From TrEMBL:
A GO term, aspect molecular function: methyltransferase activity
Family: Belongs to the trimethylamine methyltransferase family.
InterPro entries: MttB-like_sf, MTTB_MeTrfase
Region (Disordered) residue spans: 1-23
Domain of life assignment: Bacteria
Source organism of the structure: Pararhodobacter oceanensis
Alphabetized UniProt keyword annotations: Methyltransferase, Transferase
Listed name of the protein: Methyltransferase
Annotated GO biological process: methanogenesis; methylation
């Protein structure tokens, strides 16, 4: 009898290893993809964008854009298609420790934070309070230990910082110090980009080091829907291009409010707004690393309020991922923006289906997806670790059923059914235990009796313990102490020294 064949060494993905490739879920038919894409091209060539700053208008007109009588910039289809063809299709985002980086593009699914929440849920008091710089550091430090979260765009605003420049510098510093994974930040105004890049250069050891290892991307809302450019954001984009900071450019219209109520119409407008940003970035520098954050938000049409956890949000963002994947462009969508105020059943089901659909559709980056509560108005460390647990299972589902050498072994089946009658002790079972299967860290799989005997503790209780354990570990030490001291001597850093411990 032949021995069971061993799997190939590279046939399985270890938990926490390379990201799975999505794209099997397609909420849009090929005809719908074509129609929405055609409409986006028509919007750009016929309606265009308003409020282009003078330097942007001059640049765009010199490179083939046109101007309507009312001043709107339009982009002929041939121009847009040429720019898409030459655009960067794979964006490398190294970590501060380079090997913790990610490659964005091609449907490789990555989970991340984001959202600029203004409150945190304090697990001790069970009350919401204004978020601080220390909260930002603490949240991103937890991300550093979460194997199913690949990058961290600042999840909260440090509301204890009032000066815009000081806020931008300290936001970037807190992220830099908290994790060696890729990070993301944003800027109030163009002049604030250069000091942050100077700080990143210093952290890496010298001038232009950040350009060679751009571990931080800038999240820039270049457009104010519907179809109006944001002057300050366009200036930030230009500075980021000049200084070599990768871009994640955002269109975040709210269906029924700032985009059409019909989801197909909202998708067409949002795709046009995203492509307008891509055109401008590539006019600034052809092939510059740029990720399209196409975030179709949803309104509760009874009140006009945003609803991040709705079924409509789930399918619209999955469709956005499908549209960008079909065009071969690096994508970011939003998911996990539960409307629940605590990590309860509503939070679980809203996050579960919104993130799952986005991942299955092949979103390269899923922003706002972990740790957020209250329609992205608040964040929670405990929700963050719960969501990390959930995302491990979601990423496993994206991998799907894998066929590899030895996966189906007739000899093994015969050996078991004519022998001990179970597979528990076979070499294949032992080899695949941690390769084919993912296990929750916080999710409870005890039987009811054992759960009762162990104290009837919920996932929230286990999350509190997890956060306590993570915060008791030594802080990340990728930023050398002497380098940090030099940065503190040159920059208005407000994160306390005790953040080291």
């Amino acid at each position: 009898m032949r021995r069971p064949r061993k799997p190939r060494a590279n046939s399985q993905m270890l938990h926490g290893g390379p990201p799975p490739v999505g794209g099997r879920f397609k909420p849009l038919t090929e005809e719908m993809v074509a129609h929405i894409t055609e409409t986006a091209f028509d919007i750009l060539s016929r309606i265009g964008v308003a409020s282009a700053p003078a330097d942007i208008r001059e640049m765009a007109l010199a490179q083939g854009a046109q101007e309507r009588a009312d001043g709107r910039l339009t982009f002929p289809r041939a121009l847009v298609e040429d720019i898409i063809a030459g655009a960067c299709k794979r964006v490398e985002l190294p970590g501060f420790l380079r090997d913790r980086g990610i490659e964005v593009g091609g449907g490789r699914v990555h989970i991340g934070t984001g959202g600029a929440a203004v409150q945190v849920l304090d697990s001790q008091t069970q009350k919401f309070r204004d978020s601080t710089l220390r909260d930002l550091y603490d949240l991103m430090r937890i991300v550093d230990s979460c194997e199913s979260i690949h990058y961290s765009l600042r999840p909260v605003v440090a509301r204890d910082m009032e000066d815009p420049l000081v806020l931008d510098i300290n936001t970037a510093f807190a992220a830099l110090k908290a994790t060696s994974k890729p990070i993301g930040t944003s800027f109030f105004e163009p002049a604030n980009v250069a000091p942050v890049v100077e700080m990143f250069d210093a952290a890496l050891g010298g001038e232009d080091r950040f350009r060679a290892q751009p571990f931080c991307f800038a999240s820039v809302c270049h457009v104010v829907p519907p179809l109006t450019l944001a002057e300050e954001a366009c200036g930030v984009m230009r500075e980021c291009v000049r200084l070599g900071m990768p871009l994640q450019i955002c269109s975040a219209a709210q269906a029924g409010a700032t985009s059409p109520a019909a989801l197909a119409g909202a998708l067409a407008q949002g795709l046009a707004e995203s492509l307008a940003g891509l055109v401008l970035v590539n006019m600034m520098q052809p092939g510059f690393p740029c990720i399209l954050a196409f975030l179709p938000f949803i309104s509760d049409l009874r009140t006009g309020a945003m609803t991040g956890g709705s079924g409509e949000a789930a399918v619209a963002n999955a469709a956005a991922a499908q549209l960008l994947l079909a065009m071969g462009l690096p994508s970011t969508v939003s998911a996990g923006m539960t409307d629940a105020k605590t990590a309860d059943a509503q939070s679980g089901y809203e996050k579960g289906y919104t993130i799952s659909l986005a991942a299955q559709a092949g979103a390269d980056m899923i922003n706002l997806s972990v740790g957020m509560l209250g329609s992205i108005m608040a964040a929670s460390k405990e929700a963050l670790v719960i969501d990390n647990d959930m995302c491990g299972a979601i990423l496993r589902s994206v991998r799907g059923i894998e066929m590899f050498e030895g996966a189906i072994d007739l000899d093994l089946i015969e050996q078991v059914v004519t022998g001990e009658g179970h597979y528990l002790g076979t070499a294949q079972t032992m080899a695949l235990m941690t390769r084919e299967y993912v296990y929750p860290s916080l999710g409870d799989r005890q039987n009811i009796y054992n759960w009762v005997q162990s104290g009837e503790r919920t996932i929230w209780h286990r999350a509190i313990d997890c956060v306590t354990e993570l915060e008791a570990r030594p802080a990340p030490d990728h930023l050398p102490a002497d380098v940090e001291a030099a940065i503190r001597a040159r920059m208005p850093i407000h994160l306390p020294e005790f953040a080291k411990a």
